Amino acid sequence: MENGSLDYWLHEKPDGPSSLDWDTRLHIAQGAARGLSYLHQSCEPHILHRDIKSSNILLDENFEAHLADFGLARLILPYDTHVTTDLVGTLGYIPPEYGQASVATDKGDVYSFGVVLLELLTGKRPMDICKPKGTRDLISWVLR
After folding, report:
1. Model-level pTM greater than 0.90?
2. Distance of CA 100 to the CA centre of its chain
3. Which domain of life is it from (predicted)?
């Protein structure tokens, strides 16, 4: 993709965050949301991505968002409500309930997408181990 990943623009490109005005950020968020909605509701069988994160949101020349990296994805067959699985994902994006049960649901993808939205709003990484305990992850920082 011509513009790389959302992660690149938010965290790697020196002038990246300042180049992403609010309209562009909203456009990216809406495009990624449409992609996730398609996976969860429109395609048959439904698909759990299981690794929604800013580096897996690729941007074309018009900053249209495209979900990528389906290496951890799982199919949800009709009448299934979840997939039993090993704990997978990227630190900072993994929903808290995944640590308690090895069950993946579409709610986990939505949680991870919420972390991406917080990244878009704050420009902060979801996890920063250099910060003091309790402020290392974006969710704790937001809750404080």
Report:
1. no
2. 20
3. Eukaryota
Residue 12 lies inside a defined structural domain of this protein: yes
Which residue numbers are catalytic?
51
Residues in the chain: 144
Return the exposure string of 10-41: e unless at least 16 CB atoms fall within 10 Å of the residue's CB, then b: bbeeeebeeebeeeebebbbebbeebbeebbe
Report the DSSP beta bridge partners of residue 41.
Answer: none
Q: What domain range includes position 64?
A: 6-143
47 is a domain residue: yes
Q: What is the pLDDT of residues 29-75, one digit of tens each?
A: 999 999 999 999 999 888 889 899 999 999 999 999 999 988 788 88
Alpha carbon distance 101, 89 (integer Å):
14
CB-neighbour burial class of residue 53 (10 A; exposed 0-12, middle 13-18, buried 19+): buried
User: How many folded domains does the chain comprise?
Assistant: 1
